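Mods, move this if it's the wrong board.
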Amino acid sequence: MENIYSEEDLITKLKENRPLRIKLGADPTAPDIHLGHTVVLNKLRQFQQFGHEVYFLIGDFTGMVGDPSGKKLYPSAT
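Not the wrong board. C-alpha cells:
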C-alpha cells in the first residue's frame, strides 16, 4: 500500500477540490466472479461519477503463478 488516509486526511483532501486517485488491485485466482465483487466495483463507479480517478489493476502474473505467500485459498476440511 502506498498511502492509507485517516478520515480527517480524507476530508482535508476533498476540500482541496482535486480529484482523488483510487486504486484497487485484484488477482484472478478463480475462474468466475460473484455478487460480492459488485459491491466494490459499484463503489469504484461512484467515485468515477464524482470526478475521481479510478485505477483497477489485475495481477496477471500472480494469476499465472498463484499466491507467492504460500497461503491456501481454502482451509482443509478435517
